[in-house]
Design brief:
The protein has one domain (about 1-205): Rossmann fold. By secondary structure, it is an alpha/beta fold. It has helices at about 20-25, 45-55, 70-80, 100-110, 115-120, 120-125, 150-155, 190-205; strands spanning about 1-5, 30-35, 60-70, 90-95, 140-145, 175-180. The chain is globular, with a radius of gyration of 16 Å. Helix 7 (about 150-155) links the parallel strand 5 (about 140-145) and strand 6. The protein has a 6-stranded parallel β-sheet with strand order 2-1-3-4-5-6, with helices on both faces.
Length: about 220
């Protein structure tokens, strides 16, 4: 049995991950769990520690992690700061702002409450965390979207984006692979082609071509 742990993004609860969870379970045979955390009230380090405990309590000979948006940042911080058990597994970031976020900076600039609105985890990991890179042993795959529908149009995000996070903001030096799909920041959670690509990466460590999907160079 291989387990996949899904992590949601800022302001979310994990309910929006149910379709992706079902596809990974029913169509691709994984045991799937959702890790829910407080992105507003808890800081990055606290959530990374809680995730480590969640991983340790998950069954399976292999334990993979898939983080959407801010969830990918939490996932990478956990792997960088905490020792986990020796079970192997791979990591996938879905639309994660790994090189900062223009949209987050726009919100942070709102007088009086902008940073509070974003929450402690995003402030720690994105606004103050700086550009991320990867030197860990586990393979990391990054999925970016190119369907520009979202807050990014108001924040002045330039270049290809998923409407919230620019493709350039998803790059992770040291990652095993990076793929761009024609999906928006939220629609990637419901797109069957995204689930199919996640499955391939978790099995193979690379994003191989999948029938019925479209890809683009980042």
């Amino acid at each position: 049995m291989e387990t996949v742990i899904l992590l949601h993004g800022v302001w979310m609860s994990g309910a929006e991950l149910v379709v992706l969870k079902r596809r990974l379970k029913d169509e691709h045979g994984f045991n799937v769990r959702i890790f829910s955390y407080s992105s507003i009230g808890a800081g990055l380090e606290e959530n990374a520690h809680r995730l480590r405990e969640f991983v340790a309590g998950s069954r399976g000979k292999r334990v993979h992690l898939v983080g959407h948006s801010l969830g990918g940042v939490v996932m990478l911080r956990m792997m960088a700061r905490h020792r986990v058990n020796d079970r192997p597994g791979r990591l996938v970031c879905l639309g994660s702002p790994l090189q900062g976020s223009r949209v987050a900076r726009m919100f942070a600039g709102i007088p009086w409450f902008g940073r509070h609105l974003l929450g402690r985890t995003l402030v720690d990991g994105v606004l103050e965390g700086g550009a991320l890179s990867w030197r860990g042993e586990r393979e990391v795959g990054v999925v970016a979207g190119s369907l520009n529908l979202g807050l990014g149009t108001f924040a002045g995000v330039t270049g290809p984006s998923d409407g919230t996070v620019a493709v350039s903001e998803t790059w992770l030096p040291g990652a095993a692979d990076h793929i761009v799909l024609p999906v928006s920041h939220m629609s990637m959670l419901f797109a069957p082609e995204v689930a199919a690509h996640v499955n391939v990466f978790l099995r193979e460590g690379r994003f191989a071509p999948v029938a019925g999907t479209a890809t683009a160079d980042g």
